What does this fold into?
Amino acid sequence: QVQLLESGGGLVQAGGSLRLSCAASGSIFSINVMAWYRQPPGKQRELVAAITSGGSISYADSVKGRFTISTDNARNTVYLQMNSLKPEDTAIYYCNLNIIRWGQGTQVTVSS
It folds into this structure.
């Protein structure tokens, strides 16, 4: 069974930074893509950033230039460095592995 353990969420003022981490463990046969999604209050879950095993990276337009996704392949860990945070970045952030595996989510709250 695959488990995704997220950490790094919290409360930060607008303009601040946070770094999210997600460590995958268990019966991982291969990692094709790891991603971060978020679900703002009262809204649908949306893709924030994704990175493939080949190194291809994509970002939502709303976070380009502010967020950076990266991986530590030796530790099966994906990171999301979030800079210049805005109140509209407030959401529960979820780690995703190979489309079908989800973490439990970590709350990010940005105060104005």
